[in-house]
Amino acid sequence: MDDAKEGDGHANRAEQAPVPFRAAVEALRAARVRPQVEIEQVPPPQRLAPFSYALEATVVDGDQDLADGRLVLLHDPAGHDAWHGTFRLVTLVRAELEPEMAADPLLPEVCWSWLTGALQARGLAYGEPSGTVTRASSHYFGGMAARPAASQIEIRASWTPREGLGGVPDTGAHLGSWCDLLAQVAGLPPAGPGDASVVTLPQRRDPQSR
Question: CA 35 from chain center: how many Å?
């Protein structure tokens, strides 16, 4: 398929996307987050829902990446029994850990509470949360023996954002809470009033069906 035909296909799928989905995507694009969180739009996963939109983010401190993650918005106009709604947010968050933090036996429970606490702190209504918290350690041997042991935390989770007027959830606020989670996992202090910047997303891909 040549570029012109491919572009026409993207445009047609965007026009076919339901109004609630398009509004939810626009709210993501207009959201404000902490300046340490760099966000970009990426191709969404396939076959998870009729309509999807994905973002990737990195928490940056100077030239150091402290944490990264992906947030995917799914939409099925017919609804989904497991979601109890027509929208679903799915996330993956990863960060390197300090040794003393990695050794904490309550770390998985604490990390899960960071997710739910970030949503509750913004007063967001949501349901059907589920997910896993995985702690992994790497030890190096042989030619890599000089490298110190490293530990990583990984949070995989999903939840159903409650729909508001017009059947549209407040996806911008959910994105803000997700960025709060990223910052907390990265070890940044809580954001102060006005500590945010406009999210600038490349417009190379329109909201579209899978």
Answer: 16
Q: What is the pTM of this model?
A: 0.81
The strand ranges marked E within 82-149 are 85-97, 126-138
Report pLDDT digits (tens) over 90-124: 999 999 877 777 677 788 898 999 999 999 999 99
Instruction: Give the integer Cα–Cα distance in Å for 185 and 187.
Output: 5
State how far the Cα of 172 lies from the Cα of 189, in Å rounded to an integer: 21
Q: Is 164 left (phi over 0), alpha (psi -120 to 50) or beta?
A: beta
Q: Are strands 37-42 and 32-33 parallel, antiparallel or unpaired?
A: unpaired
Q: Token pair of 25, please?
A: 């995507």
* Residue 140 region by backbone torsions, left for phi larger than 0, else alpha for psi between -120 and 50, else beta: beta
